[in-house]
Amino acid sequence: MSRRPRLLIFSLAACVPAIGLVVAAVPGASAASAGHPSARAEATVRALDYLRHLKIGQHGPNQQVTRQTRSIEGLAQFQSTNWSGYADDNTRGNTYASVTANWTEPSATCTSTTSLAAFWVGIDGFTSGSVEQDGTLIECSGGSAFYFTWWEMFPTNAIQVVGQTLRPGDHIAASVVRSGTSYTLKITDSSRSGDSFTTTQSCSTCVNTSAEWIAEAPSNGSGVLPLANFHTWTPSSATVKSGTTNGVISTFPDDEITMVNSSGQVKAQPGPLSSGGNSFTVTFVRST
Known about the structure:
Jelly Rolls, eleven-stranded mixed sheet
């Protein structure tokens, strides 16, 4: 979508900045007005306009962290202020050429507080300053939820919102595929074709040193925004390619990332990888 706010990984291993999604409130949207079709359409237009003018991607400097030993097939654990999920890293010198996953769009429970949740797959960001990614976004404003599809090449472009008819329960397939310096970003909403897209972008400086499957609390210039209550998000059928090897999340060095607040309280908790190494569930715990 646009440039990413920083992802501060500060826990158990060498922390690296990553990306985040930046969004904010929908001016004028309310639970009452959003209930009327024409009023909701107007609120959606305002939401779209606001998102299209946001920039995400303020990356902080790399931050050394303490490593925690864990002996689950070499799995490393991290804590982040805005990410929850899994990342494959380059501790064995891996570079990545594709990342995919499918999911059913979660349904948010919204309060009067503006909150957001983004779900995406991507290359880079965990151990580098660029990110090539796409996914879905929930924005809660005035007690109502708005759902979008998007893509972003940070830091080249601002957030690119594509679909505004996304709904909870829609079946999403997301992928980022690299060929040389060319990246094909694709989202398919099997329920609503207007949310689907394919775009090919180029990046000659991207290093391709990580692949991610992430639920994120978007950020803005003031910091990480409240996380929308999405209940659970379950990416499945996840694949990843490094070199000539096609695999799943667990095929390559993988890192489990838990989202926490500034006090260390868990905001979103990833569960263990499935026995096939290609699926997991992130559970919402708290908004802030």
